[in-house]
Design a protein that fits this description.
Helix content: 40-55%
Strand content: 5-15%
Largest sheet: 8 strands, mixed
Shape: globular
Oligomer: single chain
Distance between the termini: 14 Å
Number of strands: 12
Number of helices: 18
Strand order of the largest sheet: 3-2-1-4-7-6-9-8
Radius of gyration: 21 Å
Order of helices and strands: HHHHHHHEHEHEHHEEHEEHHHEEHHEHEE
């Protein structure tokens, strides 16, 4: 059963405290309902307006369209378009780009190919892009993931390459790629902080590994500032089914702009896994990732994010710990953060999937692990690129053939 959860008794702040009015309530006093505030980008505002028009039929669109724009535009302007850096977020953007003293200067400092490529790759209906950050040491893992996405007919993805070799390999295999230099200010201090990154396959918990992982929230923050929702995925994940519609609907139904895979090994815990998450283009999310991008911590990104997420709300809440409440510093705005169910998004601690069951098919393992409807399986909780590659190989779940250097449809996927 891959249906969207109805509602959880999460023990977090009431919905009205987190999101204000519900979708069923009328707009009043210049404030707009949740249906408007959830779509703060201009592209999405136009898309929702066109959908509204279509529902009324030809010749009957003018009045509802005017009402929609009249009510939603004030909230859209007040909340800050995701295609414009809001006043609250501009200090974060200029601290990342010290040479920029205004939004206009910040935008001019960006490589024009960056915004053009993002517009080409983003899903126009959901305003979402799947982002994969990697270096040449993990090239085969990167191509395993891009081939996996292509096999599911997911085209709204982009690779952020941390070194020139991976950029070249991506061009060679016609994989959409953004050089990480495009995301980094020309300021020498910012370059020193964000761009002395290893090109080899780094090992978990080493300083080089931690530096690479800290670039992921930096990249996510910049994509959010440019107006798109981000689904971040690591290269040690196999996508068994397309989860993007599920994530979008879950965000809407649970009224949450930030959804993480649950990395807890326990049934009743919740820990944010930064290898798979949905970050909506929401001012609170933009601010959160901005503070993470600017942190001076030398730890890896997952430790940094869990150290700052929902610090005033325990992870362990009612009904299995599906959510917590995060308070945005300075503004004190509240944000519900959701953790994905492990029956649909299992992590690498599930030994029924990753244990020594060599003779079982992937489908049999998933059934044994009680996750037969999983969207993804995360090959974490094991250290090293080669051991992870070999676990995918044992499962017959590699989407990249190293010998031919081409995509392959793995045998394991055919048993599902």
């Amino acid at each position: 059963d891959r249906s969207i959860p109805t509602t959880y008794s999460t023990g977090v702040a009431p919905e009205e405290a987190v999101y204000g009015k519900t979708e069923t309530q009328e707009c009043s006093n210049g404030e707009c309902s949740n249906v408007c505030s959830n779509y703060v980008s201009l592209k999405m505002l136009c898309f929702r307006a066109s959908r509204l028009c279509a529902s009324f039929g030809q010749g009957q669109c003018v009045l509802p369209l005017l009402v929609f724009l009249l009510f939603c535009t004030p909230q859209f302007q007040r909340g800050g378009s995701c295609f414009q850096v809001s006043d609250d977020d501009l200090p974060l953007a200029t601290r990342l780009w010290p040479s920029a003293e205004s939004e206009a200067e910040w935008r001019r400092a960006l490589n024009p190919q960056l915004t053009r490529l993002i517009k080409q790759r983003v899903d126009p209906e959901t305003n979402t892009i799947v982002v994969l950050v990697g270096n040449d040491g993990f090239a085969r893992d990167v191509f395993h993931t891009t081939c996996n996405l292509e096999a599911l007919k997911i085209e709204n993805y982009i690779v952020v390459a941390l070194d020139e070799k991976l950029v070249e390999r991506c061009h060679q295999h016609q994989v959409p790629v953004i050089p990480a230099q495009w995301l980094v200010s020309e300021d020498p201090e910012m370059r020193k902080k964000h761009f002395h990154l290893a090109a080899e396959a780094t090992v978990w918990a080493t300083p080089a590994y931690k530096e690479i992982t800290r670039f992921k929230p930096y990249a996510a923050h910049l994509f959010l500032l440019l107006g798109v929702n981000v689904v971040m995925t690591d290269a040690d994940i196999a996508w068994l089914r397309n989860p993007l519609d599920y994530l979008e609907e879950l965000s809407r139904s649970q009224r949450t702009p930030l959804i993480f895979q649950n990395d807890s090994p326990n049934d009743d815990g919740a820990v944010a896994n930064t290898g798979f998450y949905l970050a909506k283009c929401d001012p609170r999310v933009v601010h959160f990732f901005g503070t993470i991008a600017l942190t001076s911590s030398t730890n890896h990104d997952q430790a940094v994010i869990n150290g700052q997420l929902c610090t005033e709300s325990p992870y362990r809440v009612a009904e299995g710990g599906h959510a917590c409440t995060h308070k945005v510093p300075e503004s004190n705005e509240l944000m519900t953060v959701f953790f994905l169910e492990k029956r649909l998004f299992p992590n690498g601690s599930n030994q029924a999937i990753w244990g020594s069951l060599e003779k079982n098919t992937l489908g049999q393992r998933l059934a044994t692990a009680k996750v037969p409807d999983a969207y993804i399986i995360h090959n974490n909780w094991i250290v090293g690129e080669s051991p992870k590659w070999n676990r995918f190989k044992d499962l017959k779940l590699l989407f990249w053939d190293e010998s031919s250097k081409k995509c392959a449809l793995p045998e394991g996927i055919q048993h599902l």
